[in-house]
Specification:
about 150 residues; alpha+beta; 2 helices
């Protein structure tokens, strides 16, 4: 079989505190997530994947696997601290391609640079990073035995 590359999806669970929160802070996790997605979409470079909010699995857009997703995760419940403005979120990457001609590392680096610029980033033993990998889709019919 000819190696075509891999598809990669990354889930990052983090604790974020805004460096410069708005007066009055954020009313809830969705409000905070929406502010992140809006800023990312406004400031990210042309050609970069956009970001949408999917708190409680409410997102029904067409670009689910083509955009970054801001979501919640039950393993993060109780880690937020609204008094200090710390929020627990999961970010899911768009489907990235690990092939010689593509730079998925640049997508990940842009993500961390963005958050490093605007947030204090923390982790916790309950926070995790998950990487999903699968072969790039190809026509496998040539390998079927009839």
């Amino acid at each position: 079989m000819n190696f075509q590359g891999l598809q990669i999806g990354i889930e990052l669970e983090v604790l974020l505190t805004p460096q410069n929160p708005p007066p009055g802070g954020f009313k809830d996790l969705e409000h905070f997530g929406r502010s992140i997605a809006q800023r990312w979409n406004r400031e990210s470079a042309v050609g970069m994947a956009k970001m949408h909010v999917d708190i409680d699995g409410a997102y029904e857009g067409e670009n689910e696997n083509l955009e970054w997703s801001v979501t919640d995760d039950e393993t993060l419940i109780g880690l937020e601290d609204t008094e200090t403005g710390r929020w627990a979120l999961e970010f899911t990457s768009p489907i990235l391609q690990y092939v010689p001609s593509k730079s998925w590392r640049g997508d990940i680096q842009a993500f961390w640079n963005f958050f490093d610029q605007y947030m204090f980033i923390e982790t916790d033993p309950k926070c995790g990073t998950h990487i999903h990998m699968s072969p790039l889709e190809e026509d496998l019919s040539q390998y079927l035995v009839v």
